[in-house]
Amino acid sequence: MAFKIVTIGCGSIALRGHGPAYRKYAESNPDVELAACVDIDGDKAEAFRDQFGFQRAYTDMDTALENEKPDAVCLVVPYQLTAQLAVAIMEKGYPLLMEKPPGMTRQETLRMIQAAELSGAPHQVAWNRRYMPVVAYTKQWLSRELSPGSLHNIRYDLSRVNRIGSNASMTMVHGIDMVKYLADSDYKQVRIRYQPFSHQGAIESNIHLDCEFESGVWAQIQYRPLSGSVLERVVIDAVNHTMHLHLPFWSSPDAPGKLIHIVNNEIKAELGNVELGRSEEMFIVNGFYSENALFFNDIRAGRRPGDTLKSAMQAVEISEAIRMGRELYVSGEA
């Protein structure tokens, strides 16, 4: 029998990242059927269907799920809609891959967790940065090569251009999750500082997080919405080792990304994201293909995916603290 996939949402991220990943996965797995795509804009849904090889296009999610009865559902909608739609999908018991952030608040995320637990629906949060080849390589190296306690500091910088009036927490959530993932530890506490300044009659802020993890690792996360470039860079310090990660983005001068590994003040390795990912396709070097393929493979094999809503809770809580203008986050006090 065919493994049927339905995707909800045919906007820009779906077009650039997920759609090409679905098509490649179906081309590599002949028993996969791209059954249906859904968007409230019928023209978008039809164009997405035609571009990526889906069988049918719908404007109503419930109708699509009832007609198709898919084996896996992907949710790629604006973050304001994620919780409501995710709950509805998981209450029906469908395995779900949902775009990040998985909810704007702790309460939204708890409702999604409850829906998943009551129905037993497997699910995965789509943290695509975890699956960028340079990040996957670095994570494996840290786990394999470092002795316990030698990792001590991580710095994550997020820069944007003309990001005026945006929800900073929804951008910073990417860095908040990534640092936790690389540290392989829960946050203990985070001190939050805001640097407000006036721009074109509005008040914008640089935001700085000083983070302490349960493992003893410290981290700093910086967000600058009005810089001169679109960048996300990571510096990882361990005893005798420093790793610089330049993450790829569609419009970033750092694309397609690279890793520089320095040992005792000598460059020991400089690896490109294209080299590690064996592809120049941006949906691959940005991690979209690997995150989707892992989810589909887990569901087909009867495995429970690992990047769950529970594991995402701290990223949601810290993002909510930023949105509320708080200056301190302490684990367990949210």
Task: Describe what you observe in this structure.
α5 runs antiparallel to α11. The protein is built from eleven helices and 15 strands. The strands form two sheets. The protein has a nine-stranded mixed β-sheet. The termini are far apart. The protein is of the alpha/beta class. Helices cover 39% and strands 30% of the residues. The protein folds into two domains: 3-128 and 288-307, Rossmann fold (3-Layer(aba) Sandwich); 129-281 and 315-330, 2-Layer Sandwich (Dihydrodipicolinate Reductase, domain 2). It has helices spanning 12-28, 42-52, 61-68, 79-91, 106-119, 133-145, 168-183, 273-277, 282-285, 288-301, 309-323; strands at residues 3-8, 32-38, 56-58, 72-75, 96-99, 123-126, 151-159, 187-199, 202-213, 218-224, 231-238, 241-246, 258-263, 266-272, 328-330. The longest helix has 17 residues, at 12-28.
Main attributes of the structure:
334 residues; 15 strands; six-stranded parallel sheet; 11 helices; Dihydrodipicolinate Reductase, domain 2; Rossmann fold; alpha/beta
Based on the structure given, which CATH architecture of the largest domain is correct? 2-Layer Sandwich
Strand content: 25-35%
What's the helical proportion of residues?
25-40%
**CATH fold title of the largest domain:** Dihydrodipicolinate Reductase, domain 2
Order of strands across the biggest sheet? 14-13-12-11-7-10-9-8-15
| Structural class assignment | alpha/beta
CATH classification class of the largest domain? Alpha Beta
Number of domains: 2
Oligomer: single chain
Average pLDDT metric: 96
Counted beta strands: 15
As residue ranges, the low-confidence spans are none
Order of helices and strands: EHEHEHEHEHEHEHEEEEEEEHHHHE
| Radius of gyration over all CA atoms, rounded | 20 Å
Overall geometry comes to: globular
Q: End-to-end distance, in Å?
A: 46 Å
The main β sheet shows up as:
9 strands, mixed
Number of helices: 11
CATH superfamily of the largest domain: Dihydrodipicolinate Reductase, domain 2
